[in-house]
Specification:
By secondary structure, the protein is α+β, with helices and mostly antiparallel strands. It has helices spanning 2-38, 112-115, 209-214, 310-323, 392-395, 495-502, and strands spanning 52-55, 68-71, 80-85, 88-92, 98-103, 125-128, 137-141, 146-151, 157-162, 174-178, 187-192, 203-208, 222-224, 236-238, 247-249, 252-254, 260-263, 275-282, 292-298, 329-332, 337-341, 351-354, 364-367, 378-380, 386-389, 405-411, 420-425, 430-435, 442-450, 452-456, 465-470, 473-477. Helix content is 14%, strand content 32%. The strands form 8 sheets. Strands 1-32-31-30 form a 4-stranded antiparallel sheet, with no helix packed on it. A 4-stranded antiparallel sheet has the order 2-3-4-5, with no helix packed on it.
Length: 509
């Protein structure tokens, strides 16, 4: 009898415990549905700004491969447009005149970790005066392992050089015009991923462009095979310390001589996780000399993927909160780690760095988070302190995709000192918006079918425009309000701005 009572009590205990556990798990979706029911809709009319439209000699089909950059290719001081898609390069003047086109197998790609660099939305082109003739050249790689250097104004070939990749790589995949000798933009950085396994851009080589153009078998200035780069995008370069030479930026900082100067506290392995998702460079901390690098980590110790919906998603979130570790954010320079932080170990995935709060010293860093729906952005200040977090579904206007935002650029739109952010609807050819990163408020919405979004000053008043690739049209939106600070220098005078606008992709706007 006693044994029977014991079994009944034990079964009742597990039954009640199971009900409690189930009710707790189910409570989360119920709360979410309740919030949606009582949420006030955000109504934001579409902007009435009419864009400048350029019809492009390009296929309208889009697979998110290829991109665009702005550069003065015809030397009239105005920013022109270079647009790439698989098999195509087209170049248009600032006013919309077609300058030249090429049908050529340019090195552009989709998933960098599977297909190699430059990754989603990467343009695969660079533009600069690389030979000292005071005229712009355009440089790109092709899938047959050749580097091409052409005249910016008309696309005529100046040089085509066969470049064999390092052992372990199948070809050079990413290129960046740099300054490693203190002689200006006369050097070239090449990057490649490992040919087998989960691909990471560990291989680097730097060349003098004069050697590439004039020598039969040019030798690199230096090589490096232990670079911890961003997995989804190519290396960036910047002069971090103001010595007139560029460093190579990733999870490691490589000096102008090819030597590793610093690495974030992360394993540099061939494993998928952890890895660097994105890299940004800015003067985040004006109290520290030079520029700083922001890096976003994906993964880490004992983490579960937080995708999916319902109970599975909630279990992964709860497990990861308990397990801890991973999904960190790093701020550092060429000498040291300045700070390391996280927000509930949620994956940051994408970011925007800018002066979003004028009351705080330095710059703020906005992070999108990674959720299939209902993204949960958060913001840190220059000291690494959390200052804001919210949910996109609470602030997005009616009709905006529940998948949230993507391709997030910091934007100087108003002409005031405070910066904003621009983004497009996620995972679709959708609308574009400008929003306040601190609270998520959507300020302007543009009725679009955007395949690419790019932000840069192309009008010449130092404020930035929204440049949208919609099929085979380029559509440029300019702020029609008077510029309150018209005498500020153009952003292009900042070396790291110019370089960032040539090395951006989906993960690193």
């Amino acid at each position: 009898m006693q044994k029977r009572l014991y079994n009944l009590s034990r079964n009742r205990f597990f039954y009640i415990s199971g009900l409690i556990s189930l009710s707790v798990l189910l409570a989360f979706p119920v709360q979410e549905y309740a919030k949606k029911f009582f949420r006030k809709e955000v109504i934001l009319p579409n902007s009435q700004i009419k864009p400048q439209t350029i019809q492009l000699d390009l296929p309208a089909e889009d697979k998110r491969i290829g991109g665009l950059i702005a550069a003065d290719v015809n030397n009239d001081t105005k920013k022109d447009f270079i647009i790439t898609k698989p098999g195509h390069i087209v170049v248009y003047s600032n006013s919309g005149e077609k300058l030249w086109t090429k049908q050529i197998d340019i090195q552009v790609s989709g998933q960098a970790e599977k297909q190699g660099l430059p990754g989603w939305h990467g343009s695969g082109v660079q533009a600069a005066d690389v030979d000292g003739d005071r005229l712009t050249e355009v440089l790109f790689l092709t899938k047959d392992k050749n580097l091409h250097i052409v005249q910016g104004a008309d696309g005529k070939t100046k040089g085509s050089i066969k470049l064999e990749p390092p052992k372990g790589a199948s070809s050079w995949e990413h290129l960046v015009v740099g300054n490693f000798r203190g002689k200006g933009n006369r050097d070239l950085l090449l990057q490649a991923t490992n040919a087998k396994g989960y691909r990471k851009g560990r291989y680097l080589a730097a060349y003098a462009i004069d050697d590439l153009l004039k020598q039969e078998n040019p030798k690199p200035l230096w090589t490096q095979d232990k670079f911890l780069g961003g997995v989804h995008a190519g290396a960036r370069v910047a002069d971090l310390d103001g010595d007139g030479k560029h460093e190579v930026l990733g999870g490691t900082i490589v000096g102008s001589d090819g030597k590793i100067l610093f690495q974030v506290p992360m394993e540099n392995t061939t494993k998928q996780h952890p890895h660097i998702d994105a890299i940004f460079v800015a003067d985040v901390r004006p109290d520290i000399p030079g520029l700083e690098v922001v890096a976003l980590e994906e993964g880490g110790s004992d983490r579960l993927k937080e995708g999916g919906r319902g109970i599975r998603k909630r279990f992964a979130e709860m497990y990861n909160n308990i397990a801890g570790g991973g999904n960190r954010i790093f701020l550092y320079n060429k000498e040291r780690l300045i700070w390391e932080t996280h927000f509930k170990h949620q994956e940051p995935q994408n970011a925007a760095v800018g002066d979003f709060d004028l009351q705080r010293p330095g710059l703020e860093i906005w992070f999108r988070s990674r959720y299939n729906t209902n993204q949960k952005p958060f913001v840190f200040d220059a000291q690494g302190k959390l200052i804001a977090d919210y949910q996109i579904e609470d602030v997005a206007p009616k009709g905006w995709s529940d998948k949230g935002v993507e391709v997030i650029f910091t934007v100087d739109w108003t002409g005031d000192s405070r910066q904003l952010a621009a983004a497009k609807e996620r995972h679709e050819a959708g609308d574009v918006a400008i929003f306040d990163p601190l609270n998520g408020q959507f300020l302007h919405r543009f009725d679009e079918k955007s395949d690419r979004l790019y932000v840069a000053d192309v009008s010449g008043d130092w404020r930035e425009e929204l440049i949208v690739l919609n099929g085979n049209q380029l559509r440029i939106y300019q702020n029609q309000e008077p510029n309150p600070n018209p005498n500020r220098p153009r952003l292009w005078t900042q070396d790291h701005y110019r370089l960032s606008k040539m090395t951006w992709n989906y993960y690193n706007p």
